[in-house]
């Protein structure tokens, strides 16, 4: 193996948790034998497997061929026409689910709304007509820059209904980020709101949209939801109030008959180099993938109240608040605001209020809850919970155990789900009634997924070996291209490892075949020839009782090549502290070895993150190496965090 793919594994985690008997009894997949049987079928005869899944849906015209694969381009359900909005909504209206809650929504100020499948269908049809009435048509790109309200879900499903690909831009992004995305998609319409609520403040969405659109000649119409009632300006001829359009819109809007490969949405994800990539997802394959993963990974049942805490501006919100759950006819809970507003117990109050059964969140949130203290979850009734999930980053074993004990009361399985914007659906995950879990690993592949850990030459590494995480076979919800840049698509994902999709992640497979994600390959720290994943050093730091969160980056070092700079958030006060620095250094040495001792340590109240909670190590590298200029910050959630880190530097 060449050096560039080698990962040195330092942490050892040996705890194993068998599936809970009571849970397995009622689960869709009850045993490893059942999982293996179905997995083998899915991989041996993918066309048969996915064809059967697709048959559960309504097709206006049935497909001729399940998969047409010419690397790196896949077409699923070739020749078929369908509509994902139809399959999320209309399909349930002739069943008892007609009056079942589809969306249960909680606003940050405490307002709430429930929409049944029938009500949601009506709103979606009306809004689809409202869009048509202002000239939006099939194929037009529509930007959704809205707060996390029912209308955001309605907007997505209405776009899907008429075949206008949506591109959701996270409502926390600046006018500049919004502008980049409008220009890249050449969108003809922007859906926004007067404002959104965040930690009790009003985020002035319309003002940012106006600023962005001023430089975007493609935008012909803007539809504005009234949410916060703040003053805004409306531009005659271009801007329309949502509620005014809805007054006259007809509730009759047959779903467009769309080719299986019709683009459903474009979602931007930041690359390591500058410009975000517009990931393109299409209709039929994505529909089958989100449906099946939601059903089996979350063991979704009709009785469940399911809550995914993600933002709709993140792929997790697309696949696991909207499309996946609704294709299953599930009840999906959506919350508008911050986890600590008005207090740090807000999430647990929501769990208690709606009697949430399935709860899906990110490790970054879990670490924040740990920091805020057990008294908040402990003062709420969490007994309705039966399954917990995580996504977004490797979860450090410390946080996994806390989640299991304090939130799940040792009675709920945890599904640690690995996937990407690009993959569209969960790829590596336990099945809660079948898979024995170990804290810190996403375990085994989902049906139809063939991942591997390989050397740069594409050879599988042996047991316990580290390397590059790839996927060897196409899967239904895979990205189809990068919007407007197929060359970049080929280069980014299909050129590093011959014949494989390269994820950009480093990973290790253990003796049981479980996949342990080590972090992004670009973030690897190379110390005197030892390649350390950021995850391990961070995990060791966070295992210290006083540390809440940590991020490690490599910075140039004369002798070692690189050394480690650690950014640490303490549970208590954060300030320069030589004794503490020494103590944490020794702690890391004890946990994983001298090679991983950080050379620099900074204490900071917060770390720069994307909205989905991913630490932006690229920015930390810039800061740690003393550069005045930091790179692209358009996907940063809170810009003030950078300023405080830079100030620290100047102290
Ligand atoms: C869903 C999502 C993708 C990247 C991915 C990984 C990291 C996500 C896990 C994880 C370890 C996990 N889409 N990642 N889930 N790492 N364990 N369970 O996050 O496009 O925003 O990010 O996130 O590095 O490549 S994403």
How would you concisely characterize the structure shown here?
The chain contains 20 helices and 31 strands.
Description:
The structure is a single chain. The strands form 9 sheets. A 7-stranded mixed sheet has the order 6-5-18-17-19-20-21, sandwiched between helices. The longest helix has 17 residues, at 117-133. Among the domains are: 117-259, Rossmann fold (3-Layer(aba) Sandwich), CATH 3.40.50; 524-650, 2-Layer Sandwich (GMP Synthetase, Chain A, domain 3), CATH 3.30.300.30. It is built from 20 helices and 31 strands. With 651 residues, it is an alpha/beta fold. Bound molecules: 5'-O-(acetylsulfamoyl)adenosine. 5'-O-(acetylsulfamoyl)adenosine binds at residues 269, 315-316, 391-394, 416-421, 442, 503-505, 517, 520, 612.
């Amino acid at each position: 193996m060449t050096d560039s793919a080698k990962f040195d594994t330092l942490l050892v985690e040996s705890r194993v948790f068998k599936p809970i008997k009571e849970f397995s009894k009622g689960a869709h997949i009850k045993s490893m034998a059942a999982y293996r049987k179905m997995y083998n079928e899915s991989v041996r005869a993918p066309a048969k497997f996915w064809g059967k899944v697709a048959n559960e849906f309504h097709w206006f015209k049935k497909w001729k061929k399940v998969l047409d694969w010419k690397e790196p381009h896949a077409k699923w359900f070739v020749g078929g026409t369908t509509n994902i909005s139809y399959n999320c909504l209309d399909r349930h209206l002739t069943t008892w689910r007609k009056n079942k809650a589809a969306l249960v929504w909680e606003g940050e100020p405490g307002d709430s709304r429930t929409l049944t499948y029938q009500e949601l269908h009506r709103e979606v049809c009306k809004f689809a007509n409202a869009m048509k009435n202002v000239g939006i048509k099939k194929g037009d790109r529509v930007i959704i820059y809205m707060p996390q309200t029912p209308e955001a879900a309605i907007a997505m499903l209405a776009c899907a209904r008429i075949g206008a690909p949506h591109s959701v831009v996270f409502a926390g992004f600046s006018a500049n980020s919004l502008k980049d995305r409008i220009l890249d998609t050449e969108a003809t319409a922007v859906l926004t709101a007067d404002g959104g609520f965040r930690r009790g403040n009003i985020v002035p969405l319309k003002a940012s949209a106006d600023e962005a659109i001023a430089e975007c000649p493609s935008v012909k119409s803007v539809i504005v939801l009234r949410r916060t009632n703040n003053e805004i300006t409306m531009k005659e001829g271009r801007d329309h109030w949502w509620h005014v359009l809805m007054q006259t819109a007809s509730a009759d809007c047959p779903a467009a008959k769309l080719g299986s490969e019709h683009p459903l949405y474009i979602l931007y994800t930041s690359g390591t180099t500058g410009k975000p990539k517009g990931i393109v997802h299409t209709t039929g394959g994505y529909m089958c993938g989100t449906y099946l993963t939601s059903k089996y990974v979350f063991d979704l049942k009709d009785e469940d109240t399911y809550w995914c805490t993600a933002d709709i501006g993140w792929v997790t919100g697309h696949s696991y608040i909207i499309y996946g759950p609704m294709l299953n006819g599930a009840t999906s809970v959506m919350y508008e605001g911050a986890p600590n507003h008005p207090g740090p117990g807000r999430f647990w109050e929501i769990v208690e209020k709606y009697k949430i059964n399935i709860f899906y969140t990110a490790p970054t949130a879990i670490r924040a809850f740990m920091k805020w203290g057990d008294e908040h979850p402990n003062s709420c009734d969490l007994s309705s919970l039966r399954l917990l999930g995580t996504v977004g980053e490797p979860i450090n074993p410390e946080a996994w155990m806390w989640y299991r004990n304090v939130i799940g009361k040792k009675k709920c399985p945890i599904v640690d789900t690995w996937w990407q914007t690009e993959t569209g659906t969960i790829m590596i995950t336990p099945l809660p009634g079948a898979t024995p879990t170990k804290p810190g690993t996403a375990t085994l592949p989902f049906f139809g997924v063939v991942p591997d850990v390989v050397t740069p030459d594409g050879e599988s590494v042996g047991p316990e070996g580290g390397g590059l995480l790839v996927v060897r076979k196409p899967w239904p919800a895979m990205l189809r291209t990068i919007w407007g840049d197929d060359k970049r698509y080929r280069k980014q994902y299909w050129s590093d490892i011959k014949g494989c999709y390269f994820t950009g992640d480093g990973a290790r497979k253990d003796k049981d075949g479980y996949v342990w994600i080590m972090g992004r390959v670009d973030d690897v720290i190379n110390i005197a020839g030892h390649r350390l994943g950021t995850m391990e050093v961070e995990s060791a730091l966070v295992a210290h009782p006083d540390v809440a969160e940590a991020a490690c980056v490599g910075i140039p070092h004369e002798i070692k090549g690189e050394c480690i700079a650690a950014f640490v958030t303490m549970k208590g006060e954060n300030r320069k502290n030589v004794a503490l620095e020494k103590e944490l250094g020794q702690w890391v040495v004890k946990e994983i070895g001298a090679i991983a001792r950080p050379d620099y340590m900074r204490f900071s109240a917060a770390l720069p993150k994307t909205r989905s909670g991913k630490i932006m190590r690229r920015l930390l590298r810039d800061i740690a190496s003393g550069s005045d200029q930091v790179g692209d910050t358009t996907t940063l959630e809170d810009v003030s965090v950078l300023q405080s880190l830079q100030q620290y530097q100047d102290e």
